[in-house]
Automatic annotation (TrEMBL):
InterPro entries hit by this protein: Kelch-typ_b-propeller (IPR015915), Kelch_2 (IPR011498)
Positions of the UniProt region annotated as Disordered: 1-44
Compositional bias of kind Low complexity: 30-44
Top-level taxon of the source organism: Eukaryota
Protein name as annotated: Uncharacterized protein
Length: 418
């Protein structure tokens, strides 16, 4: 089913060229007044600390429970607070697996094949109300009471994990992944949250596209372009870049050939877009199953060219199956796997790429050389923040200055807390 309206408003200008050393300035619209300038903080700051959120779960089925390989997407508020119809900011959790095939505690170490499947993949949708601190399940069947779980209208995507999701306004776009039947189709599914009752759409896209894949990344760049990068098509890791202009109909995927040195073919990386339109791709696992420590910026020039640029600084650790989100100019990275059943467990488990200062930081200080410990010695001191982020296959999202992390895998157990 085609979405009735464009997925985003028309943009007046392209994103700036890749520039990893300045504070992002969000685009100003004619009818908006610039926000008051924040008080600058002198010098780069260490990575933040995390704590458990004691969210309200009225019924057991309302909470997402233990899962990994899911997505967590931040959706902005609808309307003005205090007015009728106002809906506060939300986190939308979709899919993921509630168990691992064979009950294996070790993340798959193959370079990627269609035979790798997470058992118990779901198509569940759970909503976390940020202001109300409450989880609600969007059920697959409509309850008979107003307090019963709310059912989205339309056909939902198939059960899946290792998929991608990103917000376009008040819509969550979902693509790819892998489920009990193998690779999911390349269709774009949209969960429209504009109204009180959510609605599923299947977006009509013309021509060839990225194709079925899992372990890839997707982000909205410049509030306009959906970028889909890398992953695994069931045969090998990929390095291709696809773009869909959400402001132009009919929707169509276009394969990009960015200039500059880009990432190698890899899967299980992360991609996050800064407010000025810069995309940061971080980490991943290459075709030889080696975890990567590199980070790359991708941006669109005003003349239409796309260009890769290697991000500055020294990453504290290679990693894959981690999570990363932007808050202002700082890319916050958490957790991740190293292969062979090992995870990033020392102070590098929580890391920040400060793109304004051009440096990486962990919870201790600015990183000037990779942390080369045993990945467990530092965590032996019982740092609560490190303990909370020692996981892989989790998901993260940001609302304002708050970063939320949910689920994941650690020590043979699938995590449950936010």
């Amino acid at each position: 089913m085609e979405v009735d309206s464009s997925m985003s408003a028309e943009s007046d200008h392209d994103s700036p060229a890749a520039n990893l050393y300045h504070d992002p300035q969000p685009p100003q619209h004619p009818q908006q007044q610039p926000a008051p300038a924040a008080v600058p903080v002198a010098g780069p700051r260490p990575a933040p600390t995390y704590s458990v959120v004691n969210a309200i779960i009225e019924k057991k089925e309302d909470g997402p429970g233990s899962r990994c390989g899911h997505t967590l997407t931040a959706v902005a508020a609808v309307g003005e607070e205090g007015t009728p119809g106002y809906i506060g900011p939300r986190l939308i959790l979709f899919g993921g697996a509630t168990a691992l095939e064979g009950n294996s505690a070790t993340p798959p170490s193959s370079a990627g094949s269609a035979g790798i499947r997470l058992a118990g993949a779901t198509a569940d949708v759970h909503c976390y109300d940020v202001l109300g601190n409450r989880w609600t399940r969007y059920a697959s069947e409509l309850g008979s009471k107003l307090s019963a779980p709310l059912t989205p209208v339309g056909e939902p995507p198939s059960p899946r994990a290792a998929h991608v999701a990103t917000a376009v306004g008040t819509m969550v776009v979902i693509q790819g992944g892998i489920g009990p039947a193998g690779l999911s189709a390349e269709d774009l599914h949209v969960l429209d949250l504009t109204q009180q009752r959510p609605r599923w759409h299947r977006v009509v896209v013309q021509g060839p596209g990225p194709g079925p894949r899992y372990g890839h990344v997707m982000a909205l760049v410049g509030q306009r372009f959906l970028l889909c990068i890398g992953g695994n098509d069931g045969k090998r890791p990929l390095a291709d870049v696809w773009a869909l202009d959400t402001a132009a109909k009919p929707y169509e995927w276009r394969k990009l050939e960015p200039e500059g040195e880009g990432p190698p073919p890899c899967m299980y990386a992360t991609a996050s877009a800064r407010s000025d339109g810069l995309l940061l791709l971080c980490g991943g696992r290459d075709a030889n199953s080696v975890p990567l420590a590199s980070a790359y910026g991708l941006a669109k020039h005003r003349d239409g060219r796309w260009e890769w640029a290697i991000a500055p600084g020294v990453s504290p650790s290679p990693r894959y199956q981690h999570a990363a989100v932007f808050v202002n100019a700082r890319l916050h990275v958490s957790g991740g796997a190293l292969g062979g059943g090992r995870m990033v467990e020392d102070s590098s488990s929580v890391a920040v790429l400060d793109t304004a200062a051009g440096v990486w930081c962990d919870i201790k200080s600015v990183v000037t050389s990779p942390r080369t410990g045993k990945y467990s010695a530092d965590s032996a001191g019982g740092d609560a923040s490190v303990e909370l982020t020692r996981r892989c296959r989790h998901a993260a999202a940001a609302i304002g200055d708050m970063i939320f992390i949910y689920g994941g895998l650690r020590g043979g157990k699938i995590k449950t807390y936010l």
